[in-house]
Amino acid sequence: MCGIIGYIGNNNALPMLIDGLKRLEYRGYDSSGIAILRDGEIHLQKKVGKVSELEKAAPLKDYTGSIGIGHTRWATHGEPSDVNAHPHMSNDGTIAMIHNGIIENYHTIKTKLEKLGYKFKSATDTEALVHLIQEMKKVSGDLETAVRLALRQVDGTYGIAVVSSQEPDKIIVARKGSPLIIGVGENEHYVASDAAAIIPYTRQVVYMEDGEIAVLTKNTFETKTIDNVEKIKQIHEVTFDIEEIEKGGYDHFMLKEIMEQPETLRNAMRGRVLLNEGNAKLSGLNDVTLLLENAQRIIITACGTSWHAGLVGEYMLEQYAKVSVEVEYASEFRYRNPIIKPTDVLFLISQSGETADTLAALREAKKKGASVLGICNVVGSTIARESQGGVYIHAGPEIGVASTKAFSSQLVVLSLVTLLIAHQRESVSHDVLMTMCKELLDLPSKVEKILKDTSQIEKIAEEFKTSNNFLYLGRGYNFPVALEGALKLKEISYIHAEGYPAAEMKHGPIALIDENMPVVVIATKDSTYEKIISNIQEVKARKGKVIAIANDGDDHIDTLADYVIKVPHTLDMLSPILNVIPLQLLSYFIAVKRGCNVDQPRNLAKSVTVE
Ligand code: M6R
After folding, report:
1. Does residue 102 or residue 454 have the better pLDDT?
2. Residue 239 DSSP symbol
3. Does 366 qualify as catalytic in the annotation?
4. Nearest-atom index, ligand 1, CA of 403
5. For ligand 1, what atom is nearest to the CA of residue 402?
6. What's the whole-number mean pLDDT along residues 49-53?
7. Cβ(350) to ligand 1 under 6 A?
8. What was the pLDDT predicted at 610?
9. Residue 28: is its pLDDT beyond 80?
10. If we measure between CA atoms, which residue out of 518, 461, 515 comes closest to residue 493?
11. For ligand 1, atom 9, which residue shows the shortest CA distance?
12. Structure pTM?
């Protein structure tokens, strides 16, 4: 996730900015940059890669000045590169800006500005805003008003810091949906996207709220609303330490990432769900619309959790888009000489975009003439670059080795792809497509509800923390969720766990069931509900311990299962997005109680770049 730092005071800004950027490295980034004001000019330096590269490129002797802004970028629009890194400059070279968040209507703003003669250098959404500020300054005359007028025209989210060589005694900062704090020092002020960047310098902070703008000078800070109404803000003392801040107050990155899911799901959908049309807008697929419409077969290939997402995608696409889908482990695909036809479309799913097997499958499919499309989290990753098109899931950096928020966002993106193809092919009615849109938009608040109280799941974890084996059962859309629940438990708690389609149980695994076998059953109300209830009874008849995931209001299941975790109801196709969350939490709490290294489990790497 991008990071913001800014300084105005009496000291050299550069060492503080570099130090602050290094403190923001934990958030994940791909490039960084700084802008320092000196002698009526903006001195800019931007570098792809580590902050240490930026440090080398910006020696202190050339970058003195006591006002500056710095940024670590995690690409969302445009690949990681020097030119796409922040700060971005206005065309007249007088304004520099850094930005966290997404300007959703940047394309419209850009088109208008291009007509007025503005030239764009980068592929970012941010650049549209800095040029818009320059344009507004022609009307307003001053920077603060120009920023306010520009922000009123923006849809989306932002945390920004802006400096101008024409008003070299201030930094303008503003926030909507992207955290921003002001640090208050002695004759100096700071701005940062999180306190980790500035606490060695000051612990006195002001938390900005959405819709607020502030003007920082050496000695003052003034806060207003975007509509120019003055706001009096309180100064707070930061009491927590850096490690706590990095993990957002959670004990582990994995828990932080589980808890982030309402927001990451919103980000995966932002600007993409066309409710009235019953359609999805996925600009990364614009160039392959015909290809998708005419595809005879879709092949999905991936590894691990991403492969599980692919399995859910298969069910979605076949049910709604009525296209035949095959899902294959990337590691198998590359070695089994698959038959590929020119009418096949291959989707590669990868959080990191760097998984060696998935990348090799992509190259193999390309060689055989298939069209390849990526569903990735990391912008500019190899898979994203080598694909002909694709969709980013916008989940932000995932640091815990166990994938959580990436999985749910992959599922959202697969739903959007399904929506798009089903709309193109008119394979289901408009009403069905509209319901899909509506239910998608309702997901984040339903996830919030699940995450509100995790105490029951923690208690269940306490009960089963010493178990040696677990069985996970699900049917239909929730069979892949059973696989995913088992994988999560295995990888972080080192408990042996297996996922099965529930009906397969009687073909073998049922032999394992006795009073020591916990069986997690995903039993939400979908088209397979009655069948799964029978499976629960089969487990109970053999004295197995059933932990059921069921829907709110389902009292019947309370009488059958030993433990019932309730989740809100949604469409069958979207139910995996809700049902997986208690399973993520269950494995997390069990692993913590077993004293395991949750974020970096033994023998595993976040990105498997070797075969
Ligand atoms: O980055 P990718 O999505 O391509 O990674 C694929 C798998 O290595 C990954 O999902 C792995 O299974 C995770 N550790 C699961 O939590």
Report:
1. 454
2. -
3. no
4. 16
5. 16
6. 92
7. yes
8. 64
9. no
10. 461
11. 304
12. 0.79
Nearest Cα residue to atom 7 of ligand 1: 304
Instruction: Give the HSE-up count for residue 123: Cα atoms under 13 Å, Cβ half-sphere.
Output: 10
The CATH number assigned to the domain with range 247-451 reads 3.40.50.10490
How many other β-carbons are positioned within 10 Å of the β-carbon of residue 453? 9
Among 306, 376, 404, which is best to mutate for testing ligand 1, by the most ligand atoms less than 8 A from CB?
Answer: 306
pLDDT band for 611, please (50, 70, 90 cuts).
low
Tell me what the pLDDT averaged over the chain comes to: 94
- Given the CA of residue 352, which atom of ligand 1 is nearest to it? 1
For residue 71, report the distance from its CA to the centre of ligand 1, in Å.
Answer: 28
What is the identity of the amino acid at 493? S
Q: Is residue 560 exposed (0-12), middle (13-18) or buried (19+ Cβ within 10 Å)?
A: middle
Q: What is the DSSP string of 25-81?
A: GGG--SEEEEEEEETTEEEEEEEES-HHHHHHHS-GGGS--SEEEEEEE--SSS-S-
Fold held by 3-238: Glutamine Phosphoribosylpyrophosphate, subunit 1, domain 1 (3.60.20)
**Ligand 1: centre distance to CA 403 (Å):** 6
- Please give the structure tokens belonging to residue 409: 């966002």
570-583 pLDDT per residue, tens: 999 999 999 999 99
Q: Choose the residue to mutate in 300, 355, 381, 413 for probing ligand 1, maximizing ligand atoms within 8 Å of C-beta.
A: 355
Q: Tell me: pLDDT of 593 over 80.
A: yes
Rounded to an integer, what distance in angstroms lies between the CA atom of residue 110 and that of residue 108?
5
Residue whose CA is at the smallest distance from ligand 1 atom 11: 304
DSSP state of 336: S
Domain with CATH 3.60.20.10 in the chain: 3-238
Q: What angle do CA 277, 282, 287 make, to 5 degrees?
A: 115
- Decide: helix, strand or coil at residue 263: helix
Distances 385 to 88, 191, 389, 606 between C-alpha atoms, Å = 23, 34, 9, 20
- Is 566 designated active site? no
At the topology level, CATH places domain 453-597 in Rossmann fold (3.40.50)
Q: Where are the domain boundaries for CATH 3.40.50.10490 in the chain?
A: 247-451, 453-597
Residue type, 17: L
CB neighbours (10 Å) of residue 111? 10
* pLDDT at residue number 177: 81
Q: What average pLDDT does range 421-449 have in this prediction? A: 97
